[in-house]
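Fold it.
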Amino acid sequence: MELWDKTREKLRQSPRTRSILLYLFFVVISAMFWSFLTFNSDVQLDIDVPVEMSLPSNVHLLAKVPDTLTVTVRDRGYRFFAYLFHKTPKLSLRFTDYSDGNSVFKIDQAHLKKALAPVLNKHATIVSVLPEFINIKFTDLPGKKVPVKTDIIVEPRQDYVQFGALIQSQDSVLVFSDAKTLNEINEVFTYHVEEHDLTDTLRRKVTIAPINGAVVEPRSISIMVPIEKLKQQTHSVKIAVRNAPAGVKVLLFPSDVEVSYRSPVSRIKDDAGITAVVDYNSVANGTPGNKVKVQIGEVPAAYQDVKFSRDSVEYIIEKH
């Protein structure tokens, strides 16, 4: 305690300490004077007022209502504390109050100020509102159902494959507009999507490109592109003979051939679905060396690099 008293006494006697205290004293006095003048004079401030509007279920606006209005307000300085520390109420607009009967929702500057007056402090003066007016076309016509065309490029990484077609959450959407515009719209397109080096199934939402003078519901759809890893496989395949005439039998030696290929992982346990064939016409045309070429028949689309262990087999023709 005695040490603290000695220290405090030294601080009082220090010229530097006295200068700092004097400076802080004048700062406080200046701040109080400035606050007094400011809070008792008119001050102008910009306030963002959120906008909300309810629509009848059969009405669709053909453009977006502004989310907020920037309102320039003049008021006494001390009253702005209410704006700074309290959430600004929303401006609720009723569609029926401003629809002009000609498919246009219209509010001019004067009506915006009138609608904003109850939202703001009753003593405040509204100097200006931005945007200066709201002018939006609307329609009460039923939506037109049109197909969705996806604009997408998908490239799997090496050793992977697209195993199946692109799947859309829905193949059509509703378009709302005036009669003339609806008559001209027969399809909609998504924004361009391009994905490379994929190693897993692609799942994402894609937005439908906007149409001038119309609105689309929903604005986006989900897509899925199945991607699977490829794995090397081998199978023994029975060789079939095609185009043999009645009463003729072609015996092959050997009668089967080993096939190697790369297939999606999910098809590893399935039958290959690959066929090997020889064409009797090539035999009839005199295949040299008593051998006939083995050809690839049907191959599932997802299989790659299909190869046979031999390119020809021997044959004997029997006639009955």
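The first strand starts at residue 42 and ends at 54.
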